[in-house]
């Protein structure tokens, strides 16, 4: 975005006292209910989150953008919000954790800090399980805690009966002077299921559209959408910082083709990352590690996070794809792999006592823990040569993983990052490198790390130029004999087919 832009888009942040109080379900239901009214809704998620954002994307029928001041900084967050909200009728922002929870006792990078930055009224979603009048005390405490945060309404959640709701409404409106604009009952058939990283992603939900519509039905029945609209419309004008956008890289012809593995196993991508690659001149090629037999003609590969552990058998069973990718790595293909993608690039994934062969590009065997090995923001110092980042720079990211290293050959690879914050591979390092592969547990956001997209594109261009100077045979056209040759190579290098 070049030059400052002013918007008057109605907006609100749906926040809570803590995580797990139902703000995602309410946000998804509210977004879809507003769309049913014919409104164009821009959805946002505070903080580094993929799954909640994926549900909001499905509900809003357009990409949900993450607003994280730690990863991006204040001005880029402000600019991203203005850019993506300016053509909407209303912006709905789902908060993260508790309203005032941040990285320190000052609440740095909290939902409250975001509310102050984008001048958005806050609607508190209050879990009313086993409380009545105490709910008013909690709301009043939040209202008095930070004068820069405007709490404009309350949505009651997990309400038992009509008498329960009457007591809650009377207590809050009497002691707090803030309107209760909705009261969501306990849903008998709650459509969201959870596992170790939170909600099951919509890509794996068997009845995703029915789940979203079920929440929208409940919102239409139990939340006053006109009142929500009115308080959101009270938000003041908001002006972007006017910072210049990313500069476009000079592109060769043809343009570099960057593959992106996007399927139910690998689904964690910030839309800004994909948009940055396209805006700077790359063509993106969607790939599935689950169903594609061969690797298409690409100049670099981006593998995001996800759940390879829940798809281990299918990933292992797609042998020709794994062989083709391993051979492409040996031929110099640049690969940027995050978290679940890093697991896929290893030798073996051990789940529930069974071993599943992965790509074999990195000499690592991964296991799974019952508790998170890494969870939270990361700060990485780049101190080794790697395909994508210049040395001596500091990168900000985040991690959330239950996987860990069972075995690895550290002499066969290098670690590009030293961690100033986070766990990574061993509590001190991240960014495993072999040939042109960089595999890290830290997820990066392109709007915060402007060099990320440029580094991936430059590596793609270098590989494209090498390919143009070296004739290659396509596996798709090479027949069974070439497939057998690749299997033989894979067997020699990895030791198993």
Commentary on this structure:
With 497 residues, the protein is of the alpha/beta class. The chain has two domains: 6-239, Rossmann fold (3-Layer(aba) Sandwich); 257-494, Rossmann fold. The strands form six sheets. The protein has a nine-stranded mixed beta sheet. A seven-stranded parallel beta sheet has the order 4-3-5-2-6-7-8, with helices on both faces. The radius of gyration is 24 Å and the shape is globular.
- CATH class call of the largest domain: Alpha Beta
* Number of extended strands: 26
Model regions low in confidence, pLDDT < 50 over at least 5 residues: 475-479
Strand percentage: 25-35%
Q: What's the N-to-C terminus distance?
A: 50 Å
Average predicted confidence as pLDDT: 92
Examine the secondary-structure arrangement and name the CATH architecture of the largest domain. 3-Layer(aba) Sandwich
Rg, please?
24 Å
| Strand arrangement, major sheet | 14-12-15-17-26-25-24-21-22
- Helical content, roughly? 25-40%
Comma- or semicolon-separated keywords:
single chain, 497 residues, alpha/beta, Rossmann fold, nine-stranded mixed beta sheet, seven-stranded parallel beta sheet, 15 helices, 26 strands, 25% strand
In short:
By secondary structure, this protein is α/β, with parallel strands linked by helices. It has 15 helices and 26 strands. The chain folds into two domains: 6-239, Rossmann fold (3-Layer(aba) Sandwich); 257-494, Class I glutamine amidotransferase (GATase) domain (Rossmann fold).
């Amino acid at each position: 975005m070049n030059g400052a832009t002013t918007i008057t888009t109605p907006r609100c942040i749906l926040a809570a006292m803590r995580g797990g109080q139902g703000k995602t379900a309410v946000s998804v239901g509210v977004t879809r209910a507003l769309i049913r009214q014919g409104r164009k809704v821009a959805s946002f998620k505070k903080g580094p989150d993929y799954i909640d954002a994926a549900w909001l994307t499905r509900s809003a029928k357009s990409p949900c953008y993450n607003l994280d001041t730690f990863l991006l900084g204040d001005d880029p967050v402000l600019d991203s919000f203005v850019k993506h909200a300016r053509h909407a009728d209303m912006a709905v922002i789902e908060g993260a954790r508790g309203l005032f929870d941040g990285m320190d006792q000052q609440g740095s990078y909290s939902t409250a800090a975001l509310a102050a930055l984008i001048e958005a009224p806050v609607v508190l979603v209050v879990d009313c399980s086993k409380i009545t009048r105490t709910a008013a005390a909690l709301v009043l405490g939040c209202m008095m805690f930070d004068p820069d945060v405007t709490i404009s309404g309350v949505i009651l959640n997990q309400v038992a009966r009509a008498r329960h709701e009457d007591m809650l409404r009377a207590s809050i409106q009497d002691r707090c002077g803030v309107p209760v604009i909705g009261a969501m009952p306990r849903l008998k058939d709650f459509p969201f299921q959870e596992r170790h990283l939170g909600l099951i992603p919509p890509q794996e939900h068997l009845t995703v559209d029915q789940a979203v519509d079920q929440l929208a039905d409940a919102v239409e029945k139990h939340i006053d959408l006109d009142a929500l609209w009115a308080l959101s419309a009270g938000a003041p004008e908001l002006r972007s910082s006017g910072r210049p956008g990313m500069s476009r890289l000079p592109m060769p012809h043809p343009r570099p083709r960057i593959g992106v593995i996007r399927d139910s196993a690998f689904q964690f991508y910030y839309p800004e990352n994909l948009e940055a690659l396209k805006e700077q001149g790359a063509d993106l090629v969607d790939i599935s590690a689950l169903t594609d037999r061969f690797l298409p003609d690409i100049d670099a590969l981006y593998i995001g996070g996800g759940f390879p552990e829940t798809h281990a058998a299918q990933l292992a069973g797609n042998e020709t794809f794994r062989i083709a990718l391993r051979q492409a790595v040996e031929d110099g293909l640049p690969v940027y792999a995050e978290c679940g993608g890093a697991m896929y690039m290893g030798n073996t994934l051990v789940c529930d006592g069974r071993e599943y062969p992965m790509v074999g590009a990195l000499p690592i065997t991964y296991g799974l823990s019952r508790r998170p090995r890494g969870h939270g923001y990361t700060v990485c110092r780049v101190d080794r040569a790697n395909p994508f980042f210049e040395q001596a720079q500091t990168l900000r990211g985040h991690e959330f993983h239950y996987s860990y290293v069972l075995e690895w050959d550290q002499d066969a690879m290098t670690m590009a990052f030293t961690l100033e914050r986070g766990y990574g591979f061993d509590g001190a390092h991240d960014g495993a490198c072999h040939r042109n592969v960089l595999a890290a547990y830290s997820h990066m956001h392109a709007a915060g790390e402007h060099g990320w997209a440029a580094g991936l594109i430059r590596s793609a261009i270098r590989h494209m130029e090498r390919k143009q100077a070296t004739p290659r045979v396509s596996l798709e056209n090479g027949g069974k004999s070439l497939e057998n040759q690749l299997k033989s190579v894979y067997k020699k290098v990895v030791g198993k087919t």
